[in-house]
Specification:
2 copies of one chain form a homodimer. The first copy, chain A, is α/β, with parallel strands linked by helices. Chain A has 2 domains: about 5-265, TIM Barrel (Alpha-Beta Barrel); about 270-370, no CATH class. Chain A has helices at about 45-50, 60-65, 70-75, 80-85, 95-100, 130-140, 155-175, 195-205, 220-235, 250-260, 270-275, 305-310, 315-320, 325-350, 355-365, 370-385, and strands at about 5-15, 15-25, 25-30, 30-35, 60, 90, 105-110, 115, 125, 140-145, 180-185, 210-215, 240-245, 265, 275-280, 285. In chain A, strands 4-14-13-12-11-10-6-5 form an 8-stranded parallel β-sheet. A 3-stranded antiparallel β-sheet of chain A has the order 1-2-3. A 3-stranded antiparallel β-sheet of chain A has the order 7-8-9. In chain A, a hairpin with a 4-residue loop joins β7 (about 105-110) and β8. The first copy, chain A, is globular and about 60 Å long. In chain A, about 55% of the residues are buried. The interface of A and B includes residues 44 and 296 of A.
């Protein structure tokens, strides 16, 4: 791939790849993790913080920005980069995930989806053409096609949804016109290898600038998710970036990189931070716990983030217990630093050909405790809340 | 005054003074404004932000820190500076203001005051000796004596309260022992010139390192406040800093500096920021107002703060309307930058002998709109809420 979105693979190590995706707002070194800035803001942080945290790519949510403050307003103010003061690469999702999570507040037909706003109940309609228009006006570097994110375990429904997703992908491809914006297709098909293979084949035929793997981390087990990646990545073109949407637990990132994924986004590190849950090399812990009341150590001894360089666990716990906003921010800084350091390490290890042993070593020391997060994801789907970062 | 708390006046201009107060954690250039870090944190900000905002002195609340996380814990973690990651000067109040605002949850006697925690209802007792012990363990550079902040308009009660305040000041003076901590006395007496003069005379006799003027900005009119300063400052020693507690509106600071005050603290700039109210050279406005929805200008064109350098009013309004925490922080940064720039300008103008014309020019352009704040102060007192930043 050449032009403003040139994609170059530097090294491979097994199925893992280290690469660079160029964009009009700078390069994205991959494997990369994109923090989520739902409302054109990564909650509690500023652009200067994101730069300090070595963030290359941000995700912003089309559904949320379309409703508030509106894509027209953002366009009039110079587009998303200018509006939010972030001059680096941005990716917008299509809003499909949020709209489909509205459950009883949306109705689907072959042409598109009609839904009611979670903010004021007003009625809106997304079609493939409309979503592309909104994303082009927002002006991110990377836009996503409108797809349907269905229950990954419901084979019968998935087969129907898949035809619609493919038809919409083709319409999005036809409608898309901004040369300074890359459009990525989204492979669906739940946990079923034959559906994933078909979806990958059809989307590859549409020649997208990159391919996302959608519909995962929404209720299936980790084993099912990893098996689905095994069954999907081999059907995607080697010379395009691969993006696993909505995944951000460190163990899932390592397993996905090993299977050939280049890009991730997730609210997890930032959302759990605001609940006081901190990421470390040995797993997560919650800073509210009474055992940290007099703990003079930083969150993690070897961490170079501002939070760890400056404050004790005891102080951070005090901020959370006292309801101080600064605590949410300091925890967010730490968790994003942890993620970006992990991604940098992954890139280095791939370059050295030592990714497999790094992954094994990391996972041996890291206690996986994300059952609650999975549970939370299920609960949110059941309650039809639109996802926010 | 010599030693670790040497106070040097550089220039006078009318009754206004520019000066430096040295402390073990660095100099405080005065006239100075101290932001309030109630719970060992200026809400939404970090020490690095406060440094960037040219903050020299912070205030922390003894009442709040005594209750949570506790002064013993803070002492064991190395004292307040180390605990909160702020290596600059800190002042702690005595907790008196908060305790007396508890109204029906406290009972007063000659020896001290017994009160119930606003957090868990537990019973506590402050005496002059106890407060000094707590403040010494917190370890701020400047500690305040325990005083009684009574209704500034109730002459009969004030006269009784004043004897108690003076007896407590003497006991605080006797109990205080940390050589690396300055102790300031607090002049009370409401709006009554003869009570203020008597209070100043008695406290001056106790030879404090500095003198605060307490019990103002709690219900009296601006004219009464200014007249009280006129009646008080002349009775205070020229060679000690003068500190007007709880005052922070720009117009009040200018009027008070003109009357000889050197130091201020107030939650106003930070609290109104979290409500979306922004300080400018022409007065305050609230960023939530619909007229800013598409306003591409910064809060103030000539402002050099990070917020104004980076974001439009439209974006800030979007953050507030969307309930994004970042909005509270960006507004706080702007308001504190405004205050610190104002204080720096005041110091410069005094040095040049042009303070009077600067003050007149500033006040001519600045629309005063703090009725609502005064109303809020009255409401909080009536509801007996402990004040927080």
């Amino acid at each position: 791939m050449t032009g403003p979105f040139a994609f170059q693979i530097h090294s491979t190590d097994g199925n893992a790849r280290s690469s660079t995706l160029r964009t009009p707002h700078g390069p994205v070194e991959m494997p990369a993790f994109a923090p989520v800035g739902t409302a054109a803001n990564v909650k509690t942080l500023e652009p200067r913080d994101l730069s300090e945290l070595n963030t290359s790519l941000l995700l912003a949510n089309t559904y949320h920005l379309y409703l508030r403050p509106g894509h027209d307003l953002i366009e009039r103010l110079g587009g998303l980069h200018s509006f939010m003061g972030w001059d680096g690469p941005i990716l917008t999702d299509s809003g499909g995930y949020q709209v489909f999570s509205l459950a009883h507040r949306r109705s689907l037909d072959a042409d598109g989806v009609t839904f009611r706003s979670h903010i004021d109940g007003s009625t809106h309609r997304f079609t493939p053409e409309r979503v592309i228009e909104i994303e082009e006006r927002l002006g991110a570097d990377i836009a996503m096609v409108l797809d349907e994110c269905a229950d990954p375990l419901d084979a019968v429904y998935l087969a129907q949804a898949l035809s619609r997703t493919h038809a919409w992908a083709e319409r999005c491809r036809a409608a898309h016109s901004r040369p300074d914006q890359a459009l990525f297709g989204i492979v669906q098909g739940g946990i079923y290898p034959e559906l994933r293979a078909e979806s990958a084949r059809i989307l590859t035929g549409l020649d997208f600038a990159g391919y996302a793997i959608g519909g995962l981390a929404v209720g299936e087990t980790k084993e099912q998710m990893y098996a689905t990646l095994d069954a999907t990545c081999g059907h995607l073109p080697v010379d395009r970036p691969r993006y696993l949407m909505g995944v951000g637990a460190p163990e899932d990132i390592l397993e996905s990189v090993a299977r050939g994924v280049d890009l991730f986004d997730c609210v997890l590190p930032t959302r759990i931070a605001r609940n006081g849950t901190l990421l470390t090399l040995t797993g997560r812990f919650n800073i509210r716990n009474a055992r940290f009341a007099e703990d003079s150590r930083p969150i993690q001894e070897e961490c170079a983030c501002y939070t760890c360089r400056t404050f004790s666990r005891a102080y951070l716990r005090h901020l959370f217990i006292s309801g101080e906003i600064s605590g949410l921010r300091l925890a967010t800084i730490h968790n994003l630093h942890f993620m970006q350091r992990l991604m940098a390490q992954i890139r280095t290890e791939i370059g050295r050909g030592t990714f497999a042993s790094f992954r094994a070593g990391f996972l041996q020391g890291y206690r996986i405790t994300d059952q609650r997060v999975r549970h939370e994801q299920r609960r949110r789907r059941a309650e039809a809340l639109p996802a926010a970062s």
